[in-house]
């Protein structure tokens, strides 16, 4: 006789590290996401369209202010809580989680960390309320991993304005963002600086990248800047070099590790549910040894990922998390995520390649999560330098 199944993918109970109040809030958010956001997800993904009705729903949820309490509800959330929030967002839909993360993490994080008080007060309230949507323009058509040293987008000072020229690629929210943080190399000193380019600025155009197989709802764009003029007031005043850009990326890279965990968890949940309901040879396939082996390997990866990101969040709260630790977390979790979604898709057989069973979406989306915020190889080199003292970057 079968025992009661343990259905929770948090097999070691990491969520128990949250306070009672945090778990209550997480439950409310989880219910809201399932009720308000999930019904929009699959159709938007299938059509490669962004569900704009989700913006008002995210605004109502209030999550944009969680990392910036003075512009939100005044109550700071711990990094560990924000990590579990990321899990819930990605379990519902990785595309909408990425769109939200670009806005709240990359764009708002750049303005909050790189702007002065006047700039933060100017833009952050509208961004917290989702009245203005942000994007982050770093990657270029000819520059991905080497963008730090090979950035081709330029900025030239002209009196009290800056003139920007260049191109950016793979810019999430880029087709409709109100504010785009554009990174450009100053022609005068060679240093990378950050600029907030507002929607409608002459010379600034965005075109949607078509034909994606992953994160299809995210409106990634090619950006073109032709003599785009922005005032000095739109130059992020606390950004002096690419090292400052890297600080923003180090913070968001840790969130990608949580994102990978959320994707892996949902793929596992779908696979486990399918295994106990799908029958072959007169009984559930979950009763077969090879299926159980797949599920246990998936659960093992998820548990290891939980341990790493939980400790990373704790160190962030303590103020001791380093960029190298965030890089290891991103590299490790996205690799394990890739295994989990592959095994989940395998468990579904032919049903695993159609959207009806949902696992196909997570299988495809995982490829994008694996690649962005620094490839596995680049993050490996960051960690390699930390543990050997020698840089292997070309």
UniProtKB/TrEMBL annotation:
Q: Which Gene3D superfamilies match?
A: Acyl-CoA dehydrogenase/oxidase, N-terminal domain, Butyryl-CoA Dehydrogenase, subunit A, domain 2, Butyryl-CoA Dehydrogenase, subunit A, domain 3
Q: Give any single GO term for biological process.
A: fatty acid beta-oxidation
Q: What is its EC number?
A: 1.3.8.6
Keyword annotations for this protein? FAD, Flavoprotein, Oxidoreductase
Cofactor dependence: FAD
Identify one Pfam family in the record. Acyl-CoA_dh_M
Q: Which InterPro entries match?
A: ACX4-like, Acyl-CoA_DH_CS, Acyl-CoA_Oxase/DH_mid-dom, Acyl-CoA_Oxase/DH_mid-dom_sf, AcylCo_DH-like_C, AcylCo_DH/oxidase_C, AcylCoA_DH/ox_N, AcylCoA_DH/ox_N_sf
Pinpoint the Acyl-CoA dehydrogenase/oxidase C-terminal domain residues: 245-387
User: Where is the Acyl-CoA oxidase/dehydrogenase middle domain positioned along the sequence?
Assistant: 135-228
Q: Which GO terms describe its molecular function?
A: flavin adenine dinucleotide binding; glutaryl-CoA dehydrogenase activity
All copies of the Acyl-CoA dehydrogenase/oxidase N-terminal domain together span 21-129
Q: Which domain of life is it from?
A: Bacteria
PANTHER family the UniProt entry points to:
ACYL-COA DEHYDROGENASE (PTHR43188:SF1), ACYL-COENZYME A OXIDASE (PTHR43188)
Family classification: Belongs to the acyl-CoA dehydrogenase family.
Name recorded for this polypeptide: Glutaryl-CoA dehydrogenase
Species: Halosaccharopolyspora lacisalsi
Lineage per the UniProt record: Bacteria, Bacillati, Actinomycetota, Actinomycetes, Pseudonocardiales
């Amino acid at each position: 006789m079968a025992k009661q199944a343990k259905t929770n993918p948090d097999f070691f109970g990491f969520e128990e590290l949250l306070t009672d109040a945090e778990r209550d809030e997480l439950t409310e958010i989880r219910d809201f996401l399932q009720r308000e956001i999930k019904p929009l997800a699959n159709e938007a993904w299938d059509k490669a369209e962004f569900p704009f009705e989700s913006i008002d729903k995210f605004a109502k949820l209030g999550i944009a202010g969680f990392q910036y309490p003075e512009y939100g509800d005044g109550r700071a959330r711990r990094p560990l809580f924000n990590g579990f929030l990321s899990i819930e967002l990605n379990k519902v839909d990785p595309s909408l989680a990425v769109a939200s993360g670009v806005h709240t993490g990359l764009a708002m994080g750049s303005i909050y960390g790189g702007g002065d008080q006047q700039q933060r007060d100017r833009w952050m309230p509208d961004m917290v309320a989702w009245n203005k949507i942000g994007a982050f323009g770093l990657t270029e058509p000819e520059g991905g991993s080497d963008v730090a040293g090979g950035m081709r987008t330029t900025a030239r000072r002209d009196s009290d304005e800056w003139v920007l020229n260049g191109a950016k690629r793979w810019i999430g929210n880029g087709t409709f963002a109100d504010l785009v943080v554009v990174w450009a190399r100053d022609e005068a000193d060679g240093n990378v600086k950050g600029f907030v380019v507002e929607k409608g600025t002459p010379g600034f155009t965005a075109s949607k990248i078509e034909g994606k197989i992953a994160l299809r709802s995210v409106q990634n764009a090619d950006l073109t800047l032709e003599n785009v003029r922005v005032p000095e007031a739109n130059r992020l005043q606390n950004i002096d070099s690419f090292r400052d850009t890297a600080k923003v990326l180090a913070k968001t890279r840790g969130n990608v590790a949580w994102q990978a965990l959320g994707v892996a968890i949902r793929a596992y949940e779908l696979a486990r549910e399918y295994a106990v309901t799908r029958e072959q040879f007169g009984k559930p396939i979950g009763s077969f040894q090879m299926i159980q082996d797949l599920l246990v390997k998936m659960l093992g990866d998820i548990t290891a990922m939980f341990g790493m990101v939980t400790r990373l969040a704790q160190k962030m709260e303590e103020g001791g998390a380093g960029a190298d630790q965030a890089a290891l977390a991103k590299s490790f979790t996205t690799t394990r995520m890739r295994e989990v979604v592959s095994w989940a898709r395998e468990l579904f057989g032919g049903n695993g390649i159609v959207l009806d069973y949902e696992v196909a979406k997570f299988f495809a989306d995982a490829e994008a999560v694996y690649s962005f915020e620094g490839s596995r190889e680049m993050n490996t080199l960051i960690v390699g330098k930390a543990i050997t003292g020698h840089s292997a970057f070309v």
